Amino acid sequence: MDDKIISTPKNLQVIYEDNHLIAINKRPGDLVQGDKTGDAPLSEVVKEYIKIKYNKPGNVYLGVTHRLDRPTSGIVIFAKTSKALPRLNKLFADKEAKKTYWAVVKNQPPKEKELLTHWLKRNTSQNKSYAHKKEVSESKKAVLAYTLLKKLDNYFLLEIDLQTGRHHQIRAQLAAIGCTIKGDLKYGADRSNKDGSIHLHARTLSFEHPVKKELIQLLAAPPNEAIWNACL
Fold it and tell me: What is the pTM of this model?
């Protein structure tokens, strides 16, 4: 990934923070949790940010509650207390957190609005999911609704309401209807984005606070880049 800006404790894009949780606007290229690349994950960056901000000695507690694909941008929430972590995990597991995504695609979708249902089968060696119209062995049901929000000069902006949380779900389902996300070579884009990102962004997230029990509604600005800027 060339020309990419990676999050650091100094440039971290914090959307929301209280005693129990912290929400970050993840940059494309940020790794949420450590993997085989050995690159420093966002979780470690956030720990360092908390350590510096609050002048904390010793280890900082931080729990990973959900993930975003590395080339994707947008909202990621971490738990700052051991009390909040299992509650946030349950919230995401029970689909009680409402998420919307923005996706920029090359081709116009068949309809202005549509509910897509596929059966996704994951290929772990390729780190890819394949969308099938009917159930196949070891597949999982995947459902999303899309709405065409805006027509750009050469692209189309879709808003995605994710109703299940499957591996690469949005990427695989949109590719299956001929609407590959801009820059997503893995799912059929004709070229990559210069910084290695794909034009998929976790735009909004609303949920009941795990401790305060009040409604939290978060909104993340897309990356500051020409095509995303044209979407606003």
Answer: 0.95
